[in-house]
Structures are given as C-alpha cells and as structure tokens.
Amino acid sequence: MPFIRWFSEITIADVPLVGGKNASLGEMYRELRPLGVKIPNGFAVTAEAYRHLLRSAGILSELERLLAGLDKGNVADLAVRGRRLRELVYGAPLPAPLAVEIAAAYRRLCVEYGEDCDVAVRSSATAEDLPTASFAGQQESYLNIRGEAQLLDACRRCLASLFTDRAISYRIDQGFDHLKVALSVGVMKMVRSDLAASGVIFTLDTESGFRDVVMVTGAWGLGENVVQGAVNPDEFTVFKPTLRQGFRPLIRRRLGEKKIRMIYGSGTSKELTKNVEVPKEERRRFCLTDDEVLVLSRQALLIEEHYSKKSGRDTPMDIEWAKDGESGELFIVQARPETVQSRKRLDFLETYILERRGDILCSGTSVGEKIAAGPARVITDIHRLNDFRPGEVLVADTTTPDWEPVMKQAAAIVTNRGGRTCHAAIVSRELGIPSVVGTGDGTTRIATGREITASCAEGDVGRIYDGILPFRVEQVDLAGMERPRTKIMMNLGNPEEAFSLCRIPNDGVGLARMEFIITNHIKVHPMALVHPERVADEAQRREIGELTAGYPDMPAYFVERLAEGIGTIAAPFFPKPVIVRMSDFKTNEYASLLGGRAFEPAEENPMIGFRGASRYYDERYREGFALECRALKRVRKEMGLTNVIPMIPFCRRVTEAEKVLAEMAKNGLVRGENGLEVYVMCEIPNNVIMIDEFSQLFDGFSIGSNDLTQLTLGVDRDSALVAHVFDERDPGVMRLISQVVEGGRRNRRHSGICGQAPSDYPEFAAFLVKQGIDSISLNPDSVLKITLRVLEMEKELSREQKERNPQCP
User: Fold this and answer.
1) CATH code for the part of the protein at 487-804
2) Where does 348-477 sit in CATH, by number?
C-alpha cells in the first residue's frame, strides 16, 4: 500500500486515511481550485504510515502502558508521561520504504516549484475537524522546511506530536481512544506570507454566532502569530447577503497593533522561523486592502457553500489564508468546520447582565458574551502552570496549546496579546468561559490573588473589574414566540451590540443614534476634519492627526468610520428597516468633541437652540452634514444596505424641511431614488399641527416623546428643579400623540415612536397599540416584556371588536 497521497487524489471522505486537515485540503484542491480558490499543491503521508512506524518499531505495548490510568487533572504526571510518549515515537526510525516515498514526493514537488522548495509540514489527526471536535492546534506544525533531511525529521516530529500534553488531554475530554487515533502528515508548498500577511477567516461572527458575516483577521508575516495569539491582528467584517449581490459590504474594519511579524529564519533546525518587530508606520496600515478582503470573503463563501452542500446542513467554516509577498496572490491553506457557535441553538437567548460596575483594571477584546469572577492567577512562565488552582481567573501574556490542560479549569482567561481568532479566544469559546484578550497590560495591572470580575457582556470591549461584582443570567426560549401586528422595533446606538441584539425577536431598528458612533468611534467634530486649520489647540490637532493617520484624507476618516458604524447596525437587521437619525447633538455636546470648540457657539439653552435640521443647511455646519450624507450614501449604495432610512431630528418648520431635503439631494440622497425613504422626528408641537404639510415631504414620522413632552409642557427635561412636572403620560401629550397616529394614517405615512416612555411604562405601550400606531421602538432590555404586553393588548382589542361586531373576522 502506498504511503503517499497527493492533494489531487484526496477527498473529504478520506479522513480515516489522511486526517481532517489533509482531507479538507484535498477536497478544496480538487473541487474549489477550478472555481478560483487558490490552494498550494502538496501531498499527505497517510495514517497507515504512522501505524506502520509503530508496528515496525515495536513500541505499541509501551505506549499502551504509559497511557493506562492517565489522570489529565494531574498536570505534572501528564507532562512526564507525555514527554516519554513523544520520545518513543520520535525515536522510532522511519521504515526505509516510507522514507523513500516521502523523499520522492518531495522531489516531485520541487519539479513544480523549484529546487529545494520550501514547504510547510503539518499534522493531521484522523479524528480531527469533526463537527463536534476541532482538534485545532493539538499537534505541531513546522514551517520553512527545505531539503529531504529536514523534511524527514519534521515528519517524525509531527508524528510524535500526537502525544503533546494538550492533545492527550483533549482526546480524554472528547472520549477518543488514544491508540485508535492516528496521525497523517501534510506537506504543502509554503506561501511566502513572511513577505506579506496571513490570518484566519470565520464565516460567522465568532462571539454572537451571527451567520450572515465573514470575519477576516490578519497580521504581517507568517500566520502562526495570529493563530497563537502573539499579535493583536487587524479585523474586517463583510456582510454575506449583499456581497452575494455584487456589493462591497465591508461593514467594519478594526486596526490591530501587529507589533511583531514572523519571517523565515536561517533555515537551520534551530531557527526555521523568527519574530521581528514591525516598524510603527507599518503597524498603522491595514495588512489587506479592501479589495483583498472582499476577494478572501468571496472565496470563504465558496468554501462554506461547498461544505454545506456536502454535509446537507449550514456549515460555517474556520479558514486560514496567506498572501504571497512575491506574487501578490491570496491562498487558502486550511479550512475546517467551525465547532462552537455553529452548534448553539439560534432560538434560545442567554443574556448575562452586570448589575453593578466597579473600577476597571484593564480592558481588551471580549470573547464569549459571558461574565465570570474569581481570584486572579498571573502566570508569565509555562513552568508555573502547576501553581494554578481550579476556579481562578488565568492571567497571562498569551496562551499556547500547551496551556490547555490548565485553561480547562479556569473561570475566565485574560491575556495581554491576541485577537478574536487567537488560541485563547478559540479555546475559551469551546470551553464556554469568557476571556478578555489583547489587554496590553493585564499581567501588570492585575495581581495574583486579587478578586476580579471578567465581563464580556458589554459589546466588543471586554472589561476586567476590581472585585467580585453581582450579575445575573436571563434565559429565554424564543421557539414559537408569537409576533404582534404592531411592529416592535428597538433603539440602538452601539454597533458593537448589534450582532447579539438582533437575535431578540424584532421588526427592525426604530432609532439608531448617529451620536453614539460619532462620540465613541470617531471622536472628532466633523467640521474640524473639513477645516483642521481652524483648530487652535495643538494637542487636539496632534490627536486628530493620530486618529486620521492611514486614511486618504481627514473627511474620509469621518465618512468611513460613520459608514462602518451604521453598516454594522444595519446588516444584522437586514432587510428589516433601520431608521438612522442624523446627528442630533446640542451645541455644548458638539463642542466637547475633538476640535469642536472652534466651531460651536455658546448658548444659554442648547436644548432648544442650534440643533437638528437647523444646522444642516446652515453655513456653520453644511459641510459637516455633507459628510453625514456621504456616509449614508456609502452604506446604501456601496454596501447595498438599502434598509437604512435616514431620519431628520428637530425639524421646526416645513420650509426648513424643504431646505434639508435639498441638501441631502445635493449630496446624493434623493428621496424616492433607489427606494430611499426619509423620516422626520415628530417632537415639536408644530410637527403635529402641520402634519398634513410635513406628510408631503416625508415618508414617516417617529414620535420623540421626550422632546414632545418637554415642548408641550414647557419643561426643560435636563432641569432637576422641574423634573417632577415632566411626564409623557400627561393627557395633553397623549392627545398630541393620538393626532400624530391619526395624521399618519390619514396621509398613508408610517407612524412610530422611539422615545423612552414605552420602555418605562407598559401602560403607555398599551395606549399606543389602542391608537393604532404602526411601530413602537424600545430599549433592547424592554423588547421581550413589551412584546408580550402588546400581544395581550391586541388580543383584548380583538375581543372587544368582535363583541361590538360579531361579523368581524
């Protein structure tokens, strides 16, 4: 029986022969390369070769003895036995026929790629990449291998790595017989990503499990640093549905630090690869262009679709990519089914809620959407792993697969380095524990023994709080939940929460606050980006320069960041409507942005001053509003997210509305073109009085109950002195709301509400249903509760209607 199989001879059905990794490479090489997915050529040393080695060396009985009665909880004993098992396998000489076949296959590869060609030598276990067990990173890989002698030695090392401590522990957890799992070795032409970049792709969001995105991560150099978590990589998120339609929906980009790059070493067995520092200028650049991200995303879709068809079910994928620095080509070098989020129930909602916040010790990227607490254990040396106690929070610079036996006992994990696809992140997801990665300084900010709380339930940013803080877990079974006739939407400002919140049953977003994106993700006054020369504060000018570095120009920074924030909110709700309110800062709030004081007047009462629509056509802000319009145009026309509906706030007069619509049209947002609807906030009594006239200019009304109450009752809602007078349930306010709903119905215009009242007062929501409002937009934590109340109200109204008219269906 031959011990070598070329990728062109392998299919996914060959897992028992060549292991999961090699079977997947062969499947893609045969089936997807013709469709444009680039896979380097290579071959597999079969699992039968591994078995032949054990038999010919006569070491099976000794392996069996060492594995008998193994307790994975005894880390010290596991280390001793694991080392002896690896020595036995590595010390076994390769049978001559096997060595001859491997050398001959390598020479054939050199004919294709050039003399003494560089190859990657990777382990591929026969129980690997299964739907319920990934086995990712359990065995070893060797890069920049050249020549027959190095290759044969790397193959022996791979075979021995079937008995790494972490692989032994993992097999015990998964219930696999150690001696029934065999190892194949994959030999593949290296992609010269040491001269370019590489990384990992997931065809879902790794935290929320949201299926409609491709998530690409990458860093400079060979990919081991990304996989191992040695760098904080760049992250890119692409929306699948509109990508398939031919749009360019790169909805989010996040620049990573990328401090080190792995490159080729001297080529000796001691230095096959090495890490070098990345110059600051390169760190500030994304490692991929937008076009390259989209190419990789399209290839990832082809891979996912192929494997889904093969398996007969939706199969999200975990993919490794590499860019060749010599040819500029993008290659796929590995693909396997994602095994954590894809196994979760999509109709079951589990939410962790922090009941009280404390002092933040450090923060990083959140992984796992959970909260855990316990005493910290800082480990900076792998030789101190024995100090770890079950239930502690593991704090480390980074983790590698060798740490896994200890990680399984941790309440949570904190690392200085790494991103969403690093080793610590992957393992913590699989274990179901929260981790905060890429903190930068966790090992210095946290001391061993200190009680801490790790919160990954507050969006993309994970926080480590001082002390043990109270939290609760809410679980809701969404299967078969009824939907009311009244549309129940949600208010949302933070893009980082959108992928998780979209799982709550909803009819879209009734209010996406642009201000949150500008404050938290842009931080700069838009006019300061158009006219930076007018910013007198030198420190602020430097900070603005730092933020905008790497962008074509300063206005482009604002447009791209705002478009990405809006796109990240709009995508998970697509094609349901997402109503985006144009900026509604008051002058004092605008002034607090970087560079803002140079452009904002001082007002006695900003609440009813230079805000909303009045700014958009005024020379003092017209250019800033143009940037907002450009961002929305990008979201709708480039990303294809036509579910976005712009909404104009605080529009005092009909003539003002006409001027704003003219400004929007001038900037590429023409009402009615490409299905564009424009809504207006109904928050000024004049909006209600003139509703028929406003209906000629807008497609819908969203009641801002806070401002409408303020202006109806003559109460400054920011004043504590008259706070007792402020009440959205005042009969006068409720009468105006009734008139808005009736006016919308009369003019065939959408009527909704996005104010606070329905979230705070279930009886107010019931009143709105009775009036026949089209939609109610709520804070996310109120959506389920108010949905149930609305369902009850609708049934009650239906009964009353039947009693009045028995013929009514």
Assistant:
1) 3.20.20.60
2) 3.50.30.10
Is a pLDDT exceeding 60 seen at residue 687? yes
pLDDT tens, position by position, 775-794: 999 988 888 888 888 898 88
Which one is predicted more confidently, 352 or 480? 352
Q: What HEC string does 257-318 produce? A: CCCEEEEECCCCCCCCEEEEECCHHHHCCCCCCHHHHHHHHHHHHHHHHHHHHHHCCCCCEE
**Peptide bond connecting 575 to the previous residue in cis, omega within 30 degrees of 0:** yes
Active-site position among 158, 422, 651, 754: 754
754 is catalytic: yes
Counting residues of the chain whose pLDDT is more than 70, the rounded percentage is 98
How far is 597 from 586, CA to CA, in rounded Å? 13
Instruction: Tokens 């006409």: give the residue.
Output: 658
239 forms beta bridges with 213
pLDDT tens-digit readout, 291-349: 999 999 999 999 999 999 988 999 999 999 999 999 999 999 999 998 777 777 777 78
Least confident of 175-189, 321-335, 751-765: 751-765
- DSSP string covering 16-39, please? HHHHHHHHHHHHHHHHTGGGT---
Pairing assessment for the beta strands 578-581 and 644-648 based on DSSP bridges: parallel
At a CB cut-off of 8 Å and minimum separation 6, what does 370 contact?
352, 432, 433, 434, 456, 457
- d(Cα 371, Cα 353) in Å, to the nearest integer? 8
* Residue (of 365, 457, 368, 471) closest to 418 by Cα position: 365
Active site residue 423: yes
Q: CATH number of the domain at 4-190, please?
A: 3.30.1490.20
- Quickly list H helices, 574-704: 587-591, 613-616, 622-633, 654-666, 685-689, 691-695
- How far apart CA 683 and CA 311 sit, in angstroms, is 53
- Please answer whether residues 415 and 332 qualify as being in contact, where contact means their C-beta atoms are separated by less than 8 angstroms: no
- Annotated domain spans of the chain: 4-190, 194-319, 348-477, 487-804
The answer to whether 452 and 462 are in contact (CB under 8 A) is: no
pLDDT of 774 strictly over 90: yes
- Residue 499: pLDDT over 70: yes
**Tokens of residue 351, six digits:** 């939410």
Q: 231-245, 360-374, 493-507, 752-766: which range is least confident on average? A: 752-766
Distance from chain centroid for Cα 101: 44
Q: Which of 423, 502, 525, 750 is catalytic?
A: 423
Q: Residue 734 corresponds to which amino acid?
A: M
- Given CATH 3.30.470.20, say whether it is the number of domain 194-319: yes
> Identity (one letter) of the amino acid at 198?
S
Is residue 1 over pLDDT 70?
no
